[in-house]
Amino acid sequence: MATESRASLTYRLGNDIEINRLGYGAMQLTGFGVFGEVEDRENAKKVLQEAVSAGVNFIDTADAYGPHFNESLIADALHPYKKGLVIATKGGFTRPGPNQWVPNGDPKFIQENIEGSLKRLKVDTIDLWQLHRFDPKIPVEETLAPVAEAVKAGKIKYVGLSEVDIKQIEQAEKILPIVSVQNLYNLGNRQWEEIVDYTAKKGQAFIPWFPLASGPQKLAEKLGKIAEDHKATTAQIALAWLLRRSPNILLIPGTKSVDHLHENLKASEIELTDEEFEQLSK
User: Fold this and answer.
1) pTM for the whole structure
2) For position 220, what pLDDT does the model report?
């Protein structure tokens, strides 16, 4: 497994925008099933504001979260944005109801996603726009055509992909530059191991979604002693492992709790030994 010690807690997205590798994923700040408005809007705004105050300068959202409500919430809580704050969003999912996700790569729909995100986030340029999923019914060349146009028009700075394999990354790169990949990955689920290494070699960011998932609980025995030695939680150790795993990994753990937010951010202070990292990696 390719790895190197955590020499830096920052990463240059597109070799340009320097961001802190421990960011925040806003998906949980929605209603049941990632659908509708968040139950406690004032608390949700406070979580976002606390994240930025604590040094988070990379926030991940999507047109599909709500849908729409999550992006509007971020603007409501944080606009005008602090200098250096990078907001990444996504497009390409239709949401019929709670926990229902239907890929939609229709170019007209993608264009509507982009224009809607610009309006809801109150920005002239989206820092990072990601294709949420490839639509098997529509050629990706057609899906990404309006994205390429938006890049040329200055409406999108950088483009990323989500839940893709190497072949799909290469397909997309024939159309426009790709700076990031967001796939499911955590200590307990490493099905995309090769994508972590592939993106690292290519100078692309790798953004694990569900960076904690059920991993820490299932791996409690292995994590327990290491967490105890560091006077940390198992979740913090799981995040520290991801930071150590590869220098191109950007973390976006989400939470509705200010206390849990600060707990997650403290994971950046934990330095695992080579022995601890290898033990967790087995």
Assistant:
1) 0.95
2) 75
